[in-house]
Uracil phosphoribosyltransferase
Amino acid sequence: MVTVVAHPLLQHKLSLMRDIHTGVKEFRELASEVSLLLAYEAMRDLELTPQRLTTPLVEADFPMLSGKKLALVAILRAGLIMTDAIVDLVPAAKVGHIGLYRDPQSLKPVAYYNKLPADIAERRVFLTDPMLATGGSASAAIQSLKDAGAQSIKLMSILAAPEGIAVIERDHPEVEIVVAAVDSHLNEHGYIVPGLGDAGDRIYGTK
Ligand SMILES: O=P(O)(O)OC[C@H]1O[C@H](OP(=O)(O)OP(=O)(O)O)[C@H](O)[C@@H]1O
Ligand SMILES: O=c1cc[nH]c(=O)[nH]1
Ligand SMILES: [Mg+2]
């Protein structure tokens, strides 16, 4: 299942991210803001239960987060900007890291790091990567989460290509995907078109 978050604030910020004239500082700020808006939608179904509280006026029941605890897991490098932003919204969440880079020739993911919360099986996992292109990286990351025992996984990306969505739907049909936009296609180098370029390079200024 794919949810495209069509909110105008988010769409405006995404358009600014696409602009080649947007520099590193602004790109980073926009990526953080877009991540928060995506999280607002991705976390819409978190459970609430009434808890007794006392306001300055009365004692009454008020909704508080309950149910499974959360884990935010970043696909390095680019996913880090998303978990860094979102953890401020859910400070009790644990944070995991999966290091993958995409080999430029084969476009296959190469794993170099993996550190996940030990109790990941008991947590709802929100996996972050700004770009879902061929889907190879996200699919491999989801497989590592499952191998570690994760039961409930949502993938949050800023941009997706139809090819990447199809791969996740094939490999992990139960994983929900929340994105800001689904673009047209991939080019011959596996870049999303129209896209926003190389997310990691634009976040960290490495090109
Ligand atoms: O869907 P895919 O075809 O696998 O491509 C998407 C991956 O490519 C980018 O990472 P990259 O390999 O550039 O590494 P980086 O985040 O360290 O820059 C991006 O952040 C995704 O992880
Ligand atoms: O368009 C793309 C595809 C993969 N990774 C990126 O950062 N951008
Ligand atoms: Mg990557």
The domain at 2-45+68-204 is CATH 3.40.50.2020 (Rossmann fold). The chain has one domain: 2-45+68-204. The two ends are 34 Å apart (CA to CA). Helices lie at 8-18, 24-42, 80-86, 136-147, 162-171, 199-204.
